[in-house]
Known about the structure:
Distance between the termini: 53 Å
Oligomer: single chain
CATH architecture of the largest domain: Alpha-Beta Complex
CATH topology of the largest domain: Nucleoside Triphosphate Pyrophosphohydrolase
CATH class of the largest domain: Alpha Beta
Strand content: 25-35%
Radius of gyration: 20 Å
Number of helices: 6
Amino acid sequence: MTKDNDHRPTITDRAADVAVSAPTVVGRGFMTYERYDFAIIRADDETLRQQRDVLRASRVAAVIPIDLERGKIVLIHQFRLPAHLATGRGEMVEIVAGRIDGDETPLAAAARECAEEIGVTPQRLFELYSVLPTPGCTDEYITFFLGFVDSSKVPVRGGLVGETEDTRPFVVSIHDAIAALDGGAIHNGLMVSALQWLALHRDRLQDYYERAVPSPAV
Length: 218
């Protein structure tokens, strides 16, 4: 091993030597907004002290709903106020995603969110990967699943009326979805991540189907 290889950085997240204060609640609404003081202990330099605000968004399950037989993917249209404020294009194209409730498992949440948002429960689910989409301001932690569905059963509208949720599912070919990503038409971060994964693995979907587990009852 060369000297350069001996000092090559490890490409992985790791625990930090940090002291974090108890949170101060700045505001409560759909989510809780908290403020923290913390000190990062650095062996080769003086301690770095900072104050940061965190939106406590918690855990999320996201699903890429694939109809393997038809070569289709189920997407949804949904209005997002922050997108409207940022770009004027608040009617976003998205994949299925939603909060994991209480002691609910990510797998159970993935099945439930599909039933709620696109009107069909996956026959099988396969856990893919997890991401922190915006770790600079929120603790939201999203676990992605591949869900195998029958797209012929997708209704015109989805969403829970009691949660004032309005999702409008639609079905397109996997090819067209990836082409939309290549053409710069997709701006939702979860969609970009999901379609990039799909573009890399679309030739192995049958293998994922065979490895997937039956969807929990909703």
